[in-house]
Amino acid sequence: MARIGVDVGGTNTDLVLECAKGVFYHKVPTTLKNQSIGVVDGVQGICRKAGIAPSEVETIVHGTTTATNITIEHNGAECGMITSEGFRDILHIGRHKRPYNFSLHFDVPWQSQPLVKRRNRISVSERILPPSGDVATPLDEQAVRDACALFRKRGINSVVIGFMFAFLNDAHERRAKEIVLEEMPDAYVTLSSEVAKVMREYERFSTAAMNSYVGPKTAFYLRDLDARLREAGVTSKLRIMQSNGGVSTVEACAKRPIRILMSGPAGGVIGGASEGAMAGEANIITVDIGGTSADISTIPGGSVKIMNPRDTYVSGHPVLTPMIDLVTIGAGGGSVAYIDEAGAFHVGPRSAGSEPGPACYGRGGTEPTVTDAQIVLGRLDPDMALGGDLKLDAALSHKAIEEKIARPLGMTVKEAALGIIKIINNNMALAIRSNSVARGIDPREFSIMPFGGAGPLHGVALAEAMSCKDVIVPVAPGITAAVGLLKTDLQYEHTEAVIVELMKAGPADYARINAAVATLRDRVQAELDGDDIPRDQQTITVIAECRYHGQGFELRAAMPEGPVTSENRHVITDSFHDQHQQDYGYSYRTAEVELITLRAIGSAAVRRIEIPTIAPTDGSSIDRALMFVRPTTFDDGRTLETPRYDRTKLFAGDRVPGPALLHQHNATTLVPPGYVAETLDYGNTRIRPVGA
Amino acid sequence: MNLMTNPAAAAVTVDPITLQVIRGSFETIAEEMGHVLYRMSFSSIIRESQDLGAGLFDVNFNTLCESESTPMHIGSIPGYLRGIAQTLEDDEWYEGDVVVHNHPYYGASHTPDLAIVVPVFFQGRLVGFAGNTAHHVDIGAATPGLIIDVPDVYAEGMLFAGTKLYRKGQPNTSMWNYIRRNSRAAQQLVADIEAQVASARLGAKRFVELLEKYGEDMVFAAANQLMDYAERMTRQRISEIPDGDYVAEGWLDDDGRNRDKQLKVKVTVRVRGDEVEVDLTGSADQTPTAYNVPFEGSTKVAAYAGFRKLLLDAATSDTRVPSNEGSFRPIKVTAPLGSIFNPKAPASAEARFTQCNRMIDLILRALAPVMPDRVIAGSSASISFAAYSGVRPSGDYWVFLEVNEGAYGGRPRSDGPDCIDNLMANTRNNPLEDLAMHIPMICDRYELRDDLPPGAGEFRGGIGVVKAQRVLTPAFITHESERHTDAPWGIFGGHDGVVGRCTITNPAKPGELREMPSKFSGLAVQADDVMTYYSPNGGGYGDPLNRPPIKVLEDVLDGFCTLSHAREVYGVAIDLDAETVDMAATEKLRANLRKHR
């Protein structure tokens, strides 16, 4: 039986196929208008490559940017919203903080690109009272019907229902949904209490609105893809990568597309984590370097971290859904280097993209980019890009750097190119720091894992800047995200707001907590049952999101085994104090700990791709892999005659001393002098200082 | 133009690449300090509103870096450091010291903003400071949370000047005990000070790591070059403004006690080459209440911030200018001693925000004739700062501070943003659900203001907020606000916005409505009393008859504009049923309106 991972990027759709015959890789151009065309094309192509019939494919796991692109291009559904009287503009006001401190001409994305226009936000009489959740004013059902009439008149078919305090009592939201579906049977309806049953009205409403905004198109895409695959003779199960690093079904994602807004980068992080395991390293910092941006994630102890829900934003809108903790910065191969009017030297965040692209592409770009600097320094061979498929013009790189940087700053072209690399590496190092050191993680215990085609050119410099222990280069750096898709489990999450001061909790509070846990377990179980996962293969973990009473930001704490009682509640509070100490370097051991949200995570292990090992070295010279020797300039300014090796011809245990470049079809790895690159069991590579 | 901080550093030239590397490190350290402070803190004014600032400073009190939190804090810490230098316990710094400081006549921004400062020692010598400021809920002033109608600075609560909370690493337990006994919100105050200490110590640690990595001379030389760079950028932009004296005036409602007396704000902007002076001469005398602005910690800070917004707009320029002392150097701020912008001790000077915002608004107005595509029309340029408090059955106080938003004036290329923190303010609101779960208050309404329209224009003014907060038990309210009498100005044919408003009602007493002045102190209210705040709507920019009819239609559909307003002010005829513009009728209306001008 075969399985396929397919990751759709901005330029290319990457595929990996695993079957009895081995592991195969494939790349096709991304079809931007409808990603499914390229996906189906790629699936057929990789099956041909592997020599199997599409019907032999058991599972396809898909990483998609469809939902994300809707938010970037602002072309989601026209939505209607039904909300509480007096609170029509929660989505318009947001948290009333400007995106910039020092600006008069700033844009306010949630006002200029609203998820629901004010004319379609209809407030109706109803009121639920805190803290009990009792109904103070019943729902005005006629007003809900009137709102539906208006939506019908305006051709709106995607509806958000968000009432104040629905996290305490969702009866009004559920009743309103019944009415909407009576009035508009085909409507796409999202309830705030369904997508994020947590306190904080703006974030909850925004999450629901985002779901209804991206929902209809995303659902269409996923179902259309499923149908096209069937037409192409693929009968496999289609699974979608979610932002939390777990996979889910087409139907579940069609209902909750907010769960796949970060589907794209998640595959890379999961791929990085498993490459860490293959290299025997639990502590990994992944750096996925693309054309315009770099995604950075810290993976301590082999487990991928999930972002604090207070930090999860998509296109300026808060979306309360579990996402892998990663930072994205505007640093990539296309990042433009320039001198500003007061003479300062910058690289990025602006990118030359793929049109016109770096100067060396010869598509009319005259501004120097990071890729141009790599060419000038001899770190990229212009005739070897994508195995020679993409021809680059070194003279154009040289000219751009000379005119725009070297001459104005009175430097040589070489110095300017080294400066570009140094600044971009520093920008990445600072982002790594914000995702590691700033959260109490010591990078000296971590390996840098660079990927994306150009990633392994930066690995050693980043490891030096962060004092990381070494660099691990994945087997196929250009395709790590697609491989990651075949390394992930099924995963579902649900939340319940349960607000309890734990130190003062009594029997009634424990009963509430335990009842909520039971509800959550049932809900998660139902989703896994729906995927035909046998009960004995389901794993359900419950997490307590807590804060010190009076704080505003929750951290995750562990729950005890079995029901919570006065005897074991210290498990929660101890775990919370420890987490606070870890994150902020300080804890208030005697302060009251308040439980805010319970979260259940249900998962089921899926068989993971097995990358074959390569042959161990036979003791022969690495010259068997030598391609040619050319000059390359390194960070210390020395230009050395540097051998290029074909990475695919190296054996496990081979040691390549720097200076060297390792070439493969989709990536180049830089090994500076003083470093040695050791080929590991799977064809992956560890680079560390000589003698370390 | 280069203020030397370290003579050896003068000899070092930092190459442009290392300069960017060190700059990035500085910025990351400041952000990390700010992050720890607001994530750890307990009071909503710090953790939600993020009313705080944090950064690193050299021994001459130059800012090396500062967190991007709220503008009123940015640039204020050097004033504190100068004040600490005058008042420091032991007259010297020891390694392991932690100082608390808030004295408004020794450089503080205002008393509730406590600074926590840690000296940074490197190889046994004092080389700089790590510090932060944060707004505290209650420091034991005359009324809970905020004050306005008080006699002098001693009514503002605990005054700290160069006070050591730790000496050589040892806690000053008497001082901690004293603090714990002198606040209505002692638990929050103490825990938040601890969060500030953690943040400042982290900054000091990172500063030393940076010095170890690059060497002291290199780091300070880079800091000096970065200041010179920010200064160069600012001077270039100032030199683009034609030389001249530009004047604007406005009126503040009252001082919070003498209701019939408006207070003048007069701003003269003198541009000479690449330097500029903001002269506040002609503004009102200092007031007998707390409605005065500390000169060092607030007046100057606000003037600097105003020019930074105007000249170095972060949203429209590719390059960011580092947050340091350099951009302040070409700007001189003048206010006569004894005036509202430079009060004499012992006048109280706690309620200072609205005056600062108004000064910035008037700087824009003064420069409008020579910078028409850089300025914006009049904004709400005030603030609504409300302190709600009460006593729980246990006898403990609850105190809640709320910052309400305003609206921007119309802009040369876009409408003024609605319902958003204005100018010097940039806080987050408090989630209403979180609030109602924890204190005896509930919000009855939080929406865009729809009782009166924003200033009409080709680009209309922003729409203010209406927020109705109900207390569930007897409570006290102090409200610091402005602009009930002088509406935000329209410009280049745009119409004025509308003034703010504040009422108190009670659902059990329909028909009874108390119109409140913009500032009031310690008002006792009953259970179920509702305070409703309407922030001013921004002024319009440009002729309303030039507004594209489709945008007027959108505003009508969204309820931002009535049909008659569309007709009479914008000259746009709308078919509400079909949700379209009647173009022929619109052309006629507009021609007619133009003719009768």
Automatic annotation (TrEMBL), chain A:
Domain Hydantoinase A/oxoprolinase span(s) in chain numbering: 204-493
Pfam family, one: Hydant_A_N
Entries under SUPFAM superfamilies matching the protein: Actin-like ATPase domain (SSF53067)
InterPro entries to which the protein is assigned, alphabetical: ACX-like_C, ATPase_NBD, Hydant_A_N, Hydantoinase_A, Oxoprolinase-like
Gene Ontology molecular function terms on file: 5-oxoprolinase (ATP-hydrolyzing) activity
GO biological process: glutathione metabolic process
Record domain Acetophenone carboxylase-like C-terminal: where: 511-676
Every Hydantoinase/oxoprolinase N-terminal domain range: 3-183
CC annotations in GO: cytosol
UniProt protein name: 5-oxoprolinase
Taxonomic lineage of the native organism: Bacteria, Pseudomonadati, Pseudomonadota, Alphaproteobacteria, Rhodobacterales
From TrEMBL, chain B:
Protein origin, superkingdom: Bacteria
Name of the protein this chain belongs to: Methylhydantoinase
Pfam family, one: Hydantoinase_B
GO cellular component terms given for this protein: cytosol
InterPro entries per the UniProt record, alphabetical: Hydantoinase_B, Oxoprolinase-like
One of the protein's GO biological processes: glutathione metabolic process
Any GO molecular function: 5-oxoprolinase (ATP-hydrolyzing) activity
Organism: Gemmobacter lanyuensis
PANTHER family: 5-OXOPROLINASE RELATED, HYPOTHETICAL 5-OXOPROLINASE (EUROFUNG)-RELATED
